[in-house]
């Protein structure tokens, strides 16, 4: 692929990354509106943020195994479709439990999409273009969480919280269509590779425990509580074991 073709593919990949990165923070601004409409407590509503981040951290280790066994282009496509469908479910949710479930699916899909973008770019980009294009890919990872609350505030001000999820749908449909038609196949790298279930479990659960522990610190407005120290400690222990595993 020449530079123009590779640049176009990288822009398509970046576009597919946009909604998952915005969604890491865009819902923060709608917490009070969601709680009021769904008649639930603030602590319950905060789980739509925690559940998304936890599911993302658990999914990330799976992406490497999936690209070893399946065409990376279609793994990316399926993850995009699941993100879009779960966004529809979240927008249509009438109780907090359903919304949290759809946010888990969203987060898991995002956890596949985020590392797949860099994996796919490395697979298709010539070495001489890779550094420049990698900087383009990093842009939504950096600015997405920053602009998320700004966009969320605009949406809630002039619409309602459901539109925070509805706007994901056309973005992901267009991103999936562009991925299908324009991104080249990314062949499986090693179909014979066995899944490192213990390694994935250690990394995924370790990351999830750390994030949950930190969320408890935010909820209780202090790091000096048993839940934070316990979960962060267990999470760090799991990550250290993972580093020496195998």
From TrEMBL:
InterPro entries: MFS, MFS_dom, MFS_trans_sf. Keywords: Membrane, Transmembrane, Transmembrane helix, Transport. Gene3D superfamilies: Multidrug resistance protein D. GO terms for cellular component: plasma membrane. This is Major facilitator superfamily permease. The chain crosses the membrane at residues 48-67, 74-94, 100-121, 133-155, 161-181, 193-214, 226-245. One of its GO terms (molecular function) is transmembrane transporter activity. It comes from Fructobacillus pseudoficulneus. Its main location: membrane. Residues 9-246 form the Major facilitator superfamily (MFS) profile domain. It is found in: Cell membrane. It is a multi-pass membrane protein. The keyword Membrane applies. The keyword Cell cycle does not apply.
């Amino acid at each position: 692929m020449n530079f123009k073709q590779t640049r176009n593919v990288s822009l398509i990949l970046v576009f597919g990354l946009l909604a998952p990165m915005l969604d890491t923070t865009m819902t923060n601004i709608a917490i009070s509106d969601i709680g009021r409409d769904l008649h639930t407590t603030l602590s319950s509503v905060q789980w739509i943020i925690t559940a998304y981040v936890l599911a993302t951290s658990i999914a990330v280790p799976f992406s490497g195994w999936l690209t070893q066994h399946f065409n990376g282009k279609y793994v990316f496509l399926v993850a995009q479709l699941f993100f879009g469908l779960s966004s529809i479910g979240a927008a249509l949710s009438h109780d907090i439990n359903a919304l949290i479930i759809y946010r888990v699916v969203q987060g898991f899909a995002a956890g596949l999409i985020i590392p797949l973008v860099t994996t796919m770019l490395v697979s298709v980009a010539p070495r001489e273009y890779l550094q420049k294009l990698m900087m383009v890919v990093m842009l939504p990872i950096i600015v997405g969480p920053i602009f998320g609350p700004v966009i969320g505030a605009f949406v809630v001000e002039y619409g309602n919280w459901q539109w925070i999820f509805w706007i994901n749908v056309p973005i992901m449909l267009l991103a999936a269509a562009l991925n299908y038609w324009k991104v080249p196949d990314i062949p499986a790298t090693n179909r014979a590779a066995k899944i490192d279930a213990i390694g994935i479990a250690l990394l995924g659960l370790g990351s999830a425990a750390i994030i949950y522990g930190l969320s408890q610190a935010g909820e209780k407005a202090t790091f000096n509580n048993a839940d934070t120290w316990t979960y962060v400690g267990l999470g760090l222990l799991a990550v250290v074991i993972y580093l020496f595993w195998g």
